[in-house]
Amino acid sequence: MKRLLTIELQKLWKNRASKILILSYFVLLSFIALLASVNFKIIGIDFRLADQGIFNFPYIWHFNTYIAALFKLFLALVVVSMMANEYTYGTLKQNLIDGLSKEEFIKSKFLTITVFAFASALFVFVMSLILGLSFSSYNEMSIIFSNLGYIFFYFLKLLGFFSFCLFAGMLVKRSAFAIGFVILWAIIEWIIYGVLRWKIIKDGEITDTVMQFFPLNAMSNLVKEPFTRFQAYKALENQVAGTVNQKFYGTHWYETVIVIFWIIFFVLMSYRILKKRDL
After folding, report:
1. What is the pTM assigned to this prediction?
2. Closest by alpha carbon to 89, among 197, 194, 175?
3. How many CB atoms lie within 10 A of CB 205?
4. Residue 10 or residue 160, greater confidence
5. pLDDT band for position 256 (50/70/90)?
6. For the residues of 214-262, what is the DSSP string, one character each?
7. pLDDT over 60 at 222, yes or no
8. Residue 45 pairs with which residues in a beta bridge?
9. What CA–CA distance (Å, rounded) separates 201 from 206?
10. Is residue 218 scored above 70 in pLDDT?
11. Which of 19, 218, 243, 252 is 20 to 30 A (C-alpha) from 155?
């Protein structure tokens, strides 16, 4: 495993574009810390995020993992380009000639995207811990490490998305078209949701139940939007509507199982494509 991972990391580090994208991704993640000093205005009211409990434990684990996931496209570009480069530069064929099996080749790619997901999760964990210790009103250990499961779900969400990108890169063989395929699939899921929600089923809960089995929607469900969880929003909601938001922000066990299924599916399909393809 170490040999396979070393081969892939060397390929990526020698590629200037991949190196820039990887570094840019982690630089952008660090910009989340700047949100602590940003002032927002809603309905004429000025407020600073850090003063609204966004960086309070344990909410910070939810907020930061959701925001960090928005930047995953940067590493997705690296994933699809590392597949495209294998065909463009002939390194795939050369690796196979040198004795690397097709199974080992797919394993090396999966190990690489696992490292990407783990490194990102670790980075978000450390950054969130620093921000929380700096701005949180709660410093008890039991509170600090509660809801830490969001880091795991963030890792799983990235791993699922990168597995999808790996499959797209293997299927299409060109990075631009592979990214286009991923974006197109996201649009297709939105169209299917709209058709089911307003034309066929016409029920929001049933539609959500059906859509949770689609890959990108399943990954999205691992870390749900945190904005309606803000203290300011709750106060505004209670004042205007006189109701309390009852939305569930956690992750059900079956949502995790669905994403794991898609990860296995995409990796196995990538191997199947490679196995049948004439190189």
Report:
1. 0.90
2. 175
3. 7
4. 160
5. very high
6. SHHHHHHHHS---GGGSHHHHHHHHHHTS-------S--HHHHHHHHHH
7. yes
8. 42
9. 7
10. yes
11. 19
Amino acid at 213: F
CA distance 243 to 222: 26
Crossing angle for the helix pair 2-13 and 72-88, to the nearest 10 degrees: 90
pLDDT for the residue numbered 97: 81
Token reading at 190: 């939105």
Number of other residues whose CB lies within 10 A of the CB of residue 155: 21
How many Å is the Cα radius of gyration of the chain? Answer: 21
Measured distance CA(279)–CA(264) in Å, rounded: 24
Please report, as a single letter, which amino acid is at residue 2.
Answer: K
| pLDDT tens by residue, 72-99 | 988 898 888 888 888 777 788 888 888 8
Mean pLDDT lowest for which of 1-10, 152-161, 241-250? 241-250
DSSP 71: T
